[in-house]
Write a structure and sequence with these properties.
The complex is a heterodimer of chains A (80) and B (226).
Chain A (H helix, E strand, L loop, with lengths): L1 E8 L6 H12 L12 E6 L5 H16 L5 E8 L1
Antiparallel strand pairs in A: 1-2, 1-3
Chain B lengths: L1 E6 L6 H11 L3 E6 L10 E4 L19 H11 L3 E5 L1 H8 L6 E3 L7 E9 L15 E8 L3 E3 L2 H10 L2 E6 L18 E5 L5 E4 L16 H7 L3
Parallel strand pairs in B: 1-2, 1-3, 3-4, 4-11
Antiparallel strand pairs in B: 5-8, 6-7, 6-9, 9-10, 10-11
């Protein structure tokens, strides 16, 4: 089973990369760009057949290591 | 007083720290491997700067889960002293031994220069050789030194006197123009509520001999022993 972690800077936390990318896109003529967030994507492959259990485990992984919830938001997707 | 210097894969200020304690402070010191859990012979552990575990995931994140860092929690709960310098500060925040987090610098660049700092609280074991509002000069060298903490915790820290150092200029001016990395409130160093764990981005261990341009690091490092 594959756990996908999508991590991005929390709202209100400075994201210099996102800001630079936004400015760059605007300079290319994408005038409708309002904001850009640059984050991380992490894949964790686990031995599991129980999707619910994998989701619970993924949340624990996020809490203990993958994410610092003071500065980051995240979403999980579990793919069988 | 017996010191230990933590060594993780990627630590690179460990020898500077060891040298200052042994050759300048003339105190007993040993390196401590990141897999060690017995800290009973130490009175103070210094978590040095560097790029532990390559800064993978987040600076300090992987080091915070090692046996040594976990053992530091018990060590600190007994009132023993812990100092985290630069990457060491990042490790201590990731391990929740100190509040807050260190974000990438707001300008996106590595910053490496001498920096003036103002002593906000001199009533801690780490700053008692300094006076309140004293201005000192120490080197800084980091990419992720932008201290962040939520407003509620910050207010509590201010009330408890946990803000130790703030970035300023030679006249003590603290504002955006004297902030090298975007830290909230120009914060350069903080301690825990119990005042036995101290983290700072500047490098006192690189500033203990006049030939290096400033020996102000000694003011901090000798506070603990005198």
């Amino acid at each position: 089973m594959l756990i996908k972690f999508f991590i991005k800077p929390r709202k209100g936390v400075l994201d210099p990369q996102g800001r630079a990318v936004a400015e760059s896109l605007k300079s290319l003529g994408f005038d409708n760009v309002k904001d850009v967030k640059v984050g991380k994507y992490i894949e964790v492959y686990v031995d599991s057949t129980d999707k619910e259990k994998a989701i619970e485990e993924a949340k624990e992984m996020a809490k203990k290591a993958i994410v610092n919830d003071l500065i980051e938001d995240y979403e999980i997707q579990v793919v069988e | 007083m017996r010191f230990g210097v933590a060594v993780y894969p990627g630590s690179n200020c460990d020898y500077d720290t060891y040298y200052v304690i042994r050759d300048i402070l003339k105190k007993e010191v040993e390196f401590i491997d990141y897999r060690e859990t017995d800290l009973s012979k130490y009175d103070c552990v210094i978590v040095p700067g560097g790029f532990s575990f390559g800064d993978y995931l987040r600076p300090g994140a992987i080091a915070s889960h090692t046996p040594l860092t976990q053992a530091l929690k018990d060590f600190a709960s007994k009132g023993k002293f812990v100092i985290g310098i630069c990457n060491g500060f990042q490790i201590l925040t990731e391990a929740h031994l100190l509040p807050g987090a260190l974000l990438p610098n707001n300008h996106g660049k590595f910053v490496c220069k001498h920096q003036y700092l103002k002593v906000e609280n001199n009533e801690t074991p780490f700053t008692k050789n300094l006076s309140k509002n004293q201005i000192i000069k120490l080197p800084i060298a980091h990419h992720d030194g932008n201290y962040f903490v939520d407003p509620g915790t910050l207010a509590e820290m201010e009330k408890n006197g946990q803000i130790i150092l703030r970035y300023c200029d030679e006249n003590g001016i603290i504002d955006e123009s004297t902030n090298p990395n975007g830290s909230i409130g120009n914060i350069a160093g903080v301690c825990n509520k119990e005042k036995n764990v101290f983290g700072l981005m500047p490098h006192p261990e690189r500033a203990c001999e006049p030939i290096l341009g400033t020996a102000d690091g000694l003011l901090l490092l000798t506070s603990l022993i005198n």
